[in-house]
From TrEMBL:
Coiled coil: none annotated. This is Fe2OG dioxygenase domain-containing protein. InterPro entries: IPNS-like_FE2OG_OXY (IPR044861), IPNS-like_sf (IPR027443), Iron_ascorbate_oxido_reductase (IPR050231), Oxoglu/Fe-dep_dioxygenase_dom (IPR005123). Residues 186-290 form the Fe2OG dioxygenase domain. Belongs to the iron/ascorbate-dependent oxidoreductase family. GO terms for molecular function: metal ion binding; oxidoreductase activity.
């Protein structure tokens, strides 16, 4: 696997750091319908809502892993473009969410311009030609085939996970799959992210705390920096990247669907730890979200029915309405930890 990923070209994650106890689930075993490996994860679901998905030994999994490596090269090239070029594909011009977005750091480039931490959300429906395509740079258009394969393969892996979740929740066959049909419009997207090295800053770390909105997130990262908050002790601990595995986490939509049976754990990205702290950090995320028209409410059936009923009437909105509401009030993905009104993350792109 060392050859399949580029982790070995980077300084190793420090040995002495406390890391999150993520369960590792073998994707090859899941594909072979080995329910035992999923039971282990399902058992841990309330504890963390994050797990390693070990792709080694699975044809589909290893394909996704090598496509992620290829896309990591594409994102580095994209983020290395001059700011003025990237800004054309920026937030106010293109779309409030499916666009290039940045925050300026204290660091400066060789011309004295502030360095940018940035991300770029690329819609699944754009990539698969299921809507009128938003403008994008040739660096994104040229590897169209790679993007398309990546989206289809991630979705195939997600479908396997949804099927197992469905079975464990004892829902009627296909319940979750029918809320996540690839050909339907949805907020699924690929996200490129890039962060420059910098000192740990408590305020910035707090403002980065979030849960993911959607259903399942498939995450590749190469350096440390992702942290999850442990549910019992509330301690923030690093998630160590494992070559050959991606990190999967459940989002808020799954919590809604299962009336709190599944957990969408709070997490954040902080500077990479000691041995890696001097490097630019990239991650590649594939977010799966319920179809745009799906109403976010508890599902009926299976073990969900035994969950307590909420005393407050459920606020029902569609997946699309939820996404629109969130990104107009907050710059980056997810909801914040504190209930006080959100200060938007400063994202400024010249008009
Ligand atoms: O960069 C990472 O490791 C995690 C990114 C993340 O949590 C997100 O984009 O929602
Ligand atoms: Fe996240």
């Amino acid at each position: 696997m060392a050859q399949l990923t580029s982790h070995h070209t980077l300084p190793p994650f420090p040995e002495d750091l406390k890391t999150a106890p993520l369960v590792s689930v073998s994707f090859a075993k899941l594909e072979a319908d080995d329910n035992k490996s999923f039971s282990d994860f399902f058992q841990a679901r309330q504890e963390l809502g994050f797990f390693y998905l070990d792709f080694v030994g699975s044809k589909l999994g290893e394909t996704i892993t090598s496509e992620a490596e290829e896309l990591n090269k594409v994102q580095k090239e994209f983020f290395a473009l001059p700011n003025g070029v990237k800004d054309v594909y920026g937030r106010p011009h293109l779309h409030p969410f499916y666009a290039y977005r940045y925050t300026e750091t204290e660091g400066k480039d060789e011309n004295g311009a502030p360095l940018r931490n940035a991300n770029y959300n690329l819609r699944k429906d754009d990539i698969l030609g299921q809507c009128e395509r938003l403008a994008c740079h040739p660096l994104i258009l040229e590897p169209q085939d790679l993007f398309e394969r990546y989206v289809r393969h991630c979705r195939a892996a997600v479908d396997v996970l949804l099927e197992h979740l469905n079975a464990h929740l004892q829902l009627p066959a296909g319940t979750l799959a029918n809320l996540h049909r690839i050909h339907e419009r949805s907020g699924d997207h690929v996200r490129f992210t890039q962060n420059h090295p910098g000192a740990f800053n408590e305020e910035r770390a707090r403002s980065a705390e979030h849960t993911d909105f959607g259903s399942l997130t498939i995450l590749f990262n190469w350096l440390g920096g992702l942290q999850v908050r442990l549910p019992v002790t509330e301690e923030w601990v690093y998630v160590k990247p494992i070559p050959g595995s991606c990190i999967v986490n459940l989002g808020d939509a799954m919590v809604k669907f299962t009336a709190g049976l599944l957990r969408s754990n709070i997490h954040r990205v902080v500077p990479a730890p000691s041995t890696q702290a001097h490097l630019i950090r990239n991650s590649l995320v594939f977010f799966t979200r319920p179809e745009d028209k799906v109403v976010l409410k508890r599902l009926k059936g299976g073990i969900i029915d035994a969950q307590p009923q909420s005393e407050v009437p459920e606020l029902e909105m569609t997946s699309h309405e939820w996404i629109m509401g969130v990104f107009t009030s907050k710059g980056f993905e997810g909801k914040a930890r504190n209930p006080e009104p959100q200060v938007p993350v400063p994202v400024s792109i010249p008009a």
